[in-house]
Amino acid sequence: MSLICAKIEAVTTVLAVANQKGGVAKTTTVASLGAAFVAHGQRVLVVDLDPQGCLTFSLGHNPDRITKSVHDVLTAGVEVKEVLLDTTDGVTLLPATIDLAGADAVLLMRPGREYSLKRALAKVKDQFDVIIIDCPPSLGIMTLNGLTAADAVLVPMQCETLAHRGVGQLMRTVNEVKEITNPDLKILGALPTLYDARSLHTRDVLADVTDRYGLPVLTPPIPRTVRFAEASASGATVLAGRKNKGAQAYFEVAGSLLGEFGLTSTAK
Ligand SMILES: Nc1ncnc2c1ncn2[C@@H]1O[C@H](COP(=O)(O)OP(=O)(O)OP(=O)(O)O)[C@@H](O)[C@H]1O
Ligand SMILES: [Mg+2]
Predict the structure, then answer these.
(1) I need a labelling partner for 123 at 20 to 30 A (CA). Which of 45, 101, 150, 207 fits?
(2) pLDDT by residue (tens digit) across 87-135?
(3) pTM for the whole structure
């Protein structure tokens, strides 16, 4: 009897973090989940798709001093591997600079412009277990590229009054992407951020989001903690002190997402 050894293909999950509303902790979520997936033993790439370069900066790289960025990848056909940077968090970074602000205009004239990032990432995908994309606060061509390249989308949501405004528009965009450029895109749900458990109002907002949009709410919510503000302002690693309760919450969210992605944590 012959033994047939089936080679198990490594699966890479590409996760887009998107919400056109500004300041809801998209970038913090990408940096923190990235570091959390590394702590779970995964090989992680994070992609900065925001010309503000906040993710790039928060991972210790000054966008003003970077010569090649995701802009060159998307508009000039530069290989992703020529642009990748290491970070002290252990994640690999595809950085952004202010040049990216002009990418929409360049891509506008190109056929298949929504696929630029997906095509570029395909060449490095097998080197990573998880790729996380930080979308800018708009529903423009960069966010469409992020959603088209992704297997799944996560929507950080600050649980304040009117948080749901704009969610309908975001879900319409996600559904259009599913119809046109990425039929397999999975909606993971809303991740409550800047969460204050003492506020009853917060819980109402979350219930409302589930009722109106059928959007699942991921747990645990990410509590508001001063550590995050300090970390992003200093360009220091967000998860430097894993003991803080925000970082711990991201670690738990990453752990439960791993199960959904079919990956196994090696964290002790
Ligand atoms: N859990 C938290 N506790 C306290 N402050 C936080 C938390 N998460 C994020 N912040 C702070 O909130 C601000 C906005 O966060 P962040 O930049 O991640 O949002 P964003 O959605 O990426 O913003 P933009 O839409 O401008 O890209 C930052 O100053 C960040 O440090
Ligand atoms: Mg951001």
Answers:
(1) 101
(2) 998 999 999 999 999 999 999 999 999 999 999 999 999 999 999 999 9
(3) 0.93
Q: Give residue 31's Cα distance to chain centre.
A: 8
Q: Does 27 sit in the ligand 1 pocket, CB within 6 Å? A: yes
Which residue of 20, 26, 28, 29 sits with most ligand 1 atoms within 8 Å of its CB, as the best mutation to test the pocket? 28
Ligand 2 is a single-atom ion; what residues have CB below 5 A from it?
26-27, 54
Q: How far is the C-alpha of 206 from the C-alpha of 204, rounded, in Å?
A: 5
Residue type at position 201: H
Q: Is the CB of 235 under 6 A from ligand 1?
A: no
Domains and CATH numbers, the chain: 13-258 (3.40.50.300)
Cα torsion angle, 205, 207, 212, 216, sign: positive
Q: 224 CB under 6 A from ligand 1?
A: yes
Which two three-digit tokens encode residue 246? 């925000």
